[in-house]
Design a protein that fits this description.
Helix content: 10-25%
Structural class: alpha+beta
Number of helices: 11
Largest sheet: 11 strands, mixed
Shape: elongated
Strand content: 25-35%
Number of strands: 24
Length: 467
């Protein structure tokens, strides 16, 4: 009898202290990706417990069994809508309320993605006042580093309001707002960014260390007190906890800190995209902002940031399902954090609307270099996304440079002819190459008829020697 009472007592104690819990990304007010399989996962202190998950859009529950305290399953989600509840049943019951089904995007990078309305934004007071969108939801990932991949991150889903929006990523907000207003679906935005960070900290360390070139390049990043510099450390703490959460895609604004090893960005940036897609097991769209002109070094025609911009263009042209929002007309040479975040978010959203969601008649990019033809002492440059013609903001087309076999570039006379640009210089009798806006402080003024700016580019593949 005493043994039976002891067994019952132990059982009651175990039950009373048993607990079921989930990661912070699963909570009230969250947005789940529509018409997909959404993973619901967590932990339990009960041994081999059976867990049932029920979404209120479908009364049929999905059952899974915990293994060594970990449980996970997928539930199919309907078309966009809500609010719904999700109930998790085991030895205890958890319920998530006010859950919406819609489109979920991660917004990541460094300070220009992190920048909030309170940090600096055009027309900030009016924008904040009008930020009442209950169907746009925010999840802010706190800035944390780790030497090992983490399974959870602090945070909570909140509704978009003037109070929450003013401390959330401006670019992410305007991106989400454009999608929400255009498509009339709930939007979930996960902000995971850290000002000053190089791309290497967002890539799993093993992917950097196994590549000799990238491993050496990562050592060129200076150590700072305010942000991480070691490969993988931000990924471990701020991206890995999100991997089971189904997303529509990612937007990215970063690159300034990789001026220190700009040449390796041709390799490291595509690796970032590839590694995230592999980890999510999904070739999701990845749209990014090309870094804006800035006067990094006074009275010096530096090209380290220009190389980063060129690597970003290279990535868009060579990595499938990517897109680039050009920002060379909305930067500020004296402020590395230009305040027109509305237009950055809008231009990123144009890519998503046209390419991810198939919205017709959306102009989503400015002119992109296509090819060149040498005609005696002139070079004729052709562009994609310029079928309706090109135009200059101002009387003179700026920032074109031309070179001969000596590889010396001279400022060129550039004239628009339909959807091409004719480039020449009296100093170059036999031209072989053209560069456009290929230095850090360049302020070009070439657009297509949709009013979107042309990316900087170079037609040569000459080795660039940096001082």
């Amino acid at each position: 009898m005493k043994k039976l009472l002891f067994f019952v007592l132990v059982l009651l104690v175990n039950i009373s202290f048993a607990k079921i819990w989930t990661p912070s990304i699963l909570s009230d007010n969250m947005v789940l990706q529509q018409q997909s399989n959404a993973t619901i996962w967590g932990w339990t202190t009960a041994t081999n417990e059976t867990i049932t998950i029920i979404g209120s859009w479908n009364s049929e529950g999905i059952t899974t069994k915990a293994y060594q305290g970990v449980w996970s399953t997928e539930i199919p989600t309907p078309a966009a809508g809500g609010p719904y509840t999700i109930t998790i049943k085991g030895h205890e019951e958890l319920t998530f309320s006010n859950v919406m089904i819609g489109e979920v995007w991660i917004a990541s990078g460094q300070s220009n993605m992190q920048w909030t309305p309170n940090m600096g934004l055009d027309n900030a007071e009016e924008e904040v006042k009008n930020a009442n969108y209950a169907d746009i939801r925010f999840f802010q990932v706190p800035q944390r580093i780790s030497n090992t991949p983490q399974d959870d991150t602090p945070g909570e889903w909140v509704l978009c309001s003037p109070e929450s929006m003013q401390n959330f990523s401006s670019v992410a907000y305007f991106f989400g707002k454009k999608l929400h207003k255009q498509m009339s679906v709930p939007i979930g935005l996960i902000s995971s960014n850290w000002g000053g960070t190089p791309v290497e900290v967002w890539i799993p360390k093993g992917r950097i260390s196994q590549d000799e070139e990238l491993n050496e390049a990562s050592k060129q990043i200076s150590e700072f007190e305010w942000w991480p510099h070691l490969p993988g450390t931000a990924y471990n703490g701020m991206i890995h906890p999100l991997l089971k959460f189904n997303i529509a895609g990612a937007i990215w604004y970063q690159g300034e800190s990789n001026r220190a090893n700009s040449k390796s960005y041709y390799k490291s940036f595509p690796l970032l995209i590839a590694s995230w897609r592999e980890l999510w097991k999904k070739d999701f769209p990845f749209y990014f902002a090309q870094i804006a002109p800035f006067d990094y070094e006074k009275d010096k025609k530096d090209i380290k940031a220009a190389i980063v911009r060129d690597a970003q263009l290279f990535t868009m042209l060579n990595v499938p399902n990517t897109g680039m929002a050009v920002t060379n007309d909305i930067g500020n040479l004296k402020d590395i954090h230009p305040t027109n975040k509305q237009e950055v978010g809008r231009r990123l959203a144009l890519w998503a609307l046209a390419k991810t969601y198939g919205v017709k008649d959306v102009a989503f990019t400015g002119p992109v270099y296509k090819g060149m033809e040498i005609k005696r002492n002139k070079i004729i440059v052709t562009f994609d996304y310029a079928e309706s013609g090109l135009k200059a903001d101002g009387k003179t087309l700026e920032e074109f440079y031309i070179a001969g076999l000596d590889k010396e570039f001279y400022k060129a006379n550039a004239r628009i002819k339909g959807n091409t640009v004719e480039v020449s210089s009296s100093k170059v009798k036999e031209p072989v190459a053209v560069r456009f806006a290929f230095y850090d402080k360049a302020l070009p003024n070439l657009y297509n008829e949709s009013g979107l700016p042309a990316s900087s580019f170079r037609t040569d593949d000459w080795e660039i020697v940096l001082e």
